[in-house]
Specification:
The complex is a heterodimer of chains A (486) and B (498). Chain A has 486 residues and is an all-alpha fold. Chain A is built from 21 helices and 2 strands. The longest helix of chain B is centred in the last third of the chain and has 32 residues. Classes of the chains: A mainly alpha (486), B mainly alpha (498). At the A-B interface, helix 17, helix 18, helix 19 and helix 21 of A face helix 5, helix 6 and helix 7 of B.
Chain lengths: 486, 498
């Protein structure tokens, strides 16, 4: 493969990387307007990257840079979703940051760096490249979490995230080294091939490595028993960062799980299926029960996120094309819903006031019926009630997991959904059944209000016509290199 | 005529009307919200009339069918159609919606637009449930209808409304999620979400049993059957009058309808196997809950328990596996829709004036509200199954059906006639007759024109159905016969081995 066509496959990544450098330079010189310039350029970068990825989407399936890099359809779709999530997150967070004097240009640079990390993760075809992408994403995120550097909470969260994240990266790297030891390769395709005719000893080493790989993935997805950081970090970070943290990295972590488990180690499926089964069951139970007793909305959404990721794993562990595409659908839908939910938290936060407690939603229907209605959409969608899109995500995952023969975990998952419904209903109850404590009207920039409205309506409309997105995920998985069980 | 998508209109006119009502916004425009709501409700009812007028009673096939692909990924279609079983429920639902809008005209002063919109949207969703022929479409309507009812109970309900709203939602959700699992299992077995395909599935008995129990719990919660009925008294007591009316008249019918559309035809062998269970639970509901109703001191709770008892009669009728039983139960469902709705409206009329539902707070109401007393008398009689009212037709037919099946069951079921009369008339006596109990009762004013209108409308329905039930039964024959034939054919086959 020629050098130029290698570059062609990585156009989007190269573009984002050069834009990061350009923005760094530009903001250093443009002192007065640095903040708005950085924001606009960051959004522009994401928009152009969207176009690039979109128009190179159909080339699909080719490898570049000595097979270290794969340019395929599911990667493209996931990258598009990452851009979209980041665009929405930056837009929602802007006013919030400005009010707290946090909208320094570095914020947008770090956000783009973490995006670039995710892009590399999504397109990696080599364990080391994947690791490099993961670290680029994570390091930028650590800095973002601690971005409010004068606040104890924020720095504490950053520290916690960093220490635990570094440990998880270490685990993952250790697992990768075991895989290398057993198979003699780090390239995903070769790892898969090496399974054939492997002797018993290597097999043991490979299994040993798999445990660590699953642990690393679980940490990045934030599922039990590697979930400890999630509530603290979500709560401690500035809400604008929580927006980023809860959406795009989940998509990237899903891509990583797909590449590692379905891509490199499909032959060990029965082993990682069993592991994920327990991880998923534990997350769904823990997430839902712990969310019941939270007073902070951010912590509640964090725990609900743990249970959602557990649900998503049900699709992945089905180890079928339907399962993979349902998991992909789930993670995309989850990103949309969680963005809307945290966007609502940003909306309710005012100058020097954090909409920290669930109680802050009290009487929202009196204060602003429109946003109360949108929040109702999001809550019912998260609870998996039709006509909202969250229901179809659950339907797809449950269908796959039952087809794979795991009826018991499907029963467990739906029983836990009833538990989960309780805390979503509580938010609705506060908004609709109770009278407001404060009666101030909602002040937020019109772009935030507009985008939040679009986001909320999308949750409802996608529920009326989920067909297109489902089809898109299905096609992406069909086009993927990892044929099931092969 | 068949070119017009009547069923889609019956579903979406109320929903879009509801959205329109929502758009009228704050209580400053309350009058406009009420008028738009009423017009929408009338339009919604008008659109269901041609369904009856053009209905072909001679066939059991689905009529007014609409079929469009919806989610191709799962082979889910937007498939609507009605037969003789579902036809009357659409009419009943659209009719009750008008009554509810009128009933809330003055008694709701707070967030009027949202109140009216919730009822209209729910009405559309209910029509969707009764006409969906695709499993997922059914489920989507079935569960989405929880949201408006949850809000209605929670926002406009009584003092303990939060507890009641949560209990209602979580009970029903728990049941319906099992239904979802059953639907997915059926899809995995047959590769289709079409209900009519599932009728031909012929599953092994083991799978049938599992699916049967999922159906039993899902629909049993909704009916509600003893012992999973406990959410209903709470929900009824706390809900505003309109909410109670819709709950009793329509929402409870969803569960019973589910038995006919899903349980009996899809898992007939399991149904036969567990007939004893359903009959037993139904008889407990009829007799035990009848006694429970007798002991109530709160009027709404009393009528709520009487609903459970009457719905026990319905499930009893379905599982007699004969034509009289099923048709009687269907008539009982429609009749109960009118009668229980009217009972709750009567209690609402009293509550609007006295703000109490305790029987002990009343007495001698006939002295100050003679017109009201006359209507209330009729409905109480209908509730206890007096001949010439609609209540009699259904109960009598079910008892006849039970007689064909088993004398003991018929004997036990017939106690409902005594118990029903006991609790309805005893309550009536304590509330309406006697000396004027206190000053508040003395100050009561009789029905106003609006109240007179909707009670008269319901009274006319109750009497018409009692005196001339032919239009109701005529449309059912073919569909019920077909259903029974199907069930018999299926059960005659030896089930495939496990």
């Amino acid at each position: 493969m020629s050098f130029v066509s290698n570059l062609y496959s990585a156009t989007a990544e190269i573009f984002v990387a050069s834009m990061i450098l350009a923005i760094m330079l530009a903001t250093a010189f443009a002192r007065g307007i640095a903040r708005s310039l950085a924001y606009s350029l960051a959004q522009l970068t994401l928009i152009v990257a969207t176009f690039i990825t979109f128009f190179t989407l159909n080339t699909g399936g080719e490898h570049a840079f000595s097979n270290m890099f794969v340019h395929d359809v599911p990667g493209g779709v996931l990258k598009l979703m990452v851009y979209l999530s980041m665009m929405i997150a930056l837009l929602y967070g802007r006013g919030y940051l400005a009010e707290r004097k946090l909208d320094r240009p570095e914020y947008y640079l770090l956000a783009l760096l973490t995006t670039l990390g995710m892009m590399v993760m999504i397109t990696a075809n080599h364990l080391l490249v994947l690791y490099v992408g993961l670290e680029m994403m994570s390091l930028a995120l650590y800095a973002l979490v601690a971005f409010d550097r004068d606040a104890v909470r924020s720095t504490e969260a950053g520290m916690k995230y960093f220490v635990l994240g570094a440990l998880a990266s270490g685990l993952l790297l250790y697992g990768m080294s075991m895989i290398y030891g057993a198979t003699g390769s780090l390239e995903i395709g070769e790892v898969k091939q090496a399974f054939l005719g492997m002797d018993d000893g290597s097999m043991k080493v490979l299994l040993f490595g798999l445990v660590f790989v699953v642990a690393g993935i679980s940490f990045k997805l934030g599922v039990a028993p590697f979930h400890m950081w999630v509530p603290d970090v979500y709560q401690g970070s500035p809400t604008a960062v929580t927006l980023i943290l809860s959406s795009a990295p989940k998509i990237a972590a899903f891509a990583m799980a797909m590449r590692l488990l379905a891509g490199a180690l499909p032959n060990l499926a029965e082993h990682w299926q069993t592991m994920l089964l327990f991880v998923a069951a534990a997350s769904i139970m823990l997430g839902n029960f712990a969310a019941l007793v939270q007073r902070s909305i951010k912590r509640m959404l964090a725990y609900s996120g743990i249970s959602h990721m557990g649900f998503m794993l049900l699709g992945l562990l089905s180890n079928s094309e339907a399962g993979y595409s349902s998991a992909m659908f789930y993670v995309i839908v989850y990103a949309l819903m969680t963005l809307a939910a945290f966007g609502m938290v940003v909306l309710l936060s005012r100058d020097g006031f954090e909409a920290e407690s669930i109680e802050d939603f009290r009487g929202l229907n009196r204060r602003n019926p429109w946003f109360a209605l949108l929040m109702l959409f999001v809550m019912f969608s998260m609870a998996g009630i039709p006509f909202f899109v969250g229901f179809f995500a659950k339907l797809a995952v449950l269908q796959a997991v039952i087809e794979a023969g795991y009826l018991w975990i499907a029963v467990l998952a739906v029983v836990m959904s009833v538990v989960g419904a309780f805390y979503y209903l509580r938010v609705v109850k506060l908004m609709y059944f109770d009278e407001p404590i404060v009666n101030t009207s909602i002040k937020a920039s019109s772009e935030l209000q507009l985008m939040l409205s679009i986001n909320g309506i999308a949750v409802a409309l996608l529920g009326l016509m989920p067909g297109t997105l489902l089809k898109c995920c299905e096609e992406a998985m069909k086009a993927a290199a990892f044929a099931v069980g092969g | 005529m068949t070119d017009i998508p009547l069923l889609s209109l019956a579903i979406w006119i109320p929903i879009l009307g509801g959205v329109l009502v929502l758009a009228t916004g704050s209580d400053a425009n309350a009058r406009m919200a009420r008028v738009v709501a009423l017009l929408t409700a009338i339009a919604g009812f008008a659109i269901t009339i041609p369904l009856y007028a053009c209905f072909d009673a001679s066939t059991a096939a689905m009529q007014f069918s609409e079929l469009r692909p919806w989610i191709e990924h799962f082979n889910i279609n937007y498939h609507l159609g009605i037969d003789g079983i579902s036809l009357w429920f659409l009419l009943l639902n659209s009719f009750i919606t008008i009554i509810v809008v009128i009933a809330g005209w003055e008694s709701i002063q707070n967030r009027v637009a949202q109140y009216m919109a919730a009822f209209l949207i729910m009405s559309g969703l209910m029509n969707g449930i009764f006409s969906a022929l695709d499993g997922v479409l059914f489920y989507v309507f079935f569960e989405a209808s929880l949201i408006p009812l949850y809000l209605i109970i929670g926002v406009w309900g009584g003092p303990n409304r939060v507890y009641a709203a949560f209990k209602f939602f979580l009970f029903t959700l728990a049941g319906s999620l099992l239904l979802l699992l059953a639907l997915i299992c059926l899809y995995n077995e047959t590769g289709s979400f079409a209900i009519l395909d599932w009728h031909q599935a012929g599953l092994p008995l083991g799978a049938q049993t599992l699916i049967f129990f999922a159906f039993l719990i899902a629909f049993g919660v909704k009916v509600p059957m003893w012992p999973i009925h406990t959410w209903l008294p709470d929900a009824h007591v706390e809900a505003p009058t309109g909410g109670s009316v819709v709950l009793a008249a329509i929402a409870l019918k969803l569960g019973a309808y589910g038995f006919l559309r899903f349980a009996l035809p899809i898992v007939p062998q399991a149904c036969h196997e567990y007939t004893w269970l359903v009959l037993g639970l139904s008889l407990i509901a009829v007799i035990y809950i009848g006694f429970v109703a007798l002991a109530q001191s709160d009027m709404k709770k009393l009528v709520a328990y009487s609903s459970v008892s009457h719905m026990g009669f319905v499930t009893l009728g379905f599982f007699l596996h004969n034509q009289l039983g099923i048709e009687g139960a269907l008539i009982q469902m429609i009749s109960h829709g009118f009668v229980s709705g009217a009972m709750f409206l009567c209690i609402g009329v009293l509550y609007d004036r006295m703000h109490s539902r305790q029987i002990a707070d009343y007495g001698g109401v006939v002295n100050t509200m003679p017109k009201f007393a006359a209507f209330f008398m009729l409905f109480a009689m209908a509730n206890s199954g007096l001949p010439a009212t609609s209540g009699f037709v259904g109960e009598f037919t079910v008892i006849l059906g039970a007689m064909q099946a088993n004398f003991l069951v018929a004997f036990l079921a017939a106690t409902t006639l005594i118990l029903g009369a006991a609790y309805s008339l005893w309550m009536y006596k304590r509330v309406v007759f006697g000396e004027v109990a206190n000053e508040n009762v003395a100050r009561l004013t009789d029905l106003n024109r609006r109240e007179f209108f909707f009670l008269a409308l319901l009274a006319a329905c109750v009497l018409a159905m009692g005196l001339y039930p032919f239009p109701f039964t005529e449309v059912m024959h073919a569909s019920v016969e077909n259903l029974l034939q199907h069930v018999q054919q299926q059960t005659a086959l030896t089930p495939p081995p496990l």
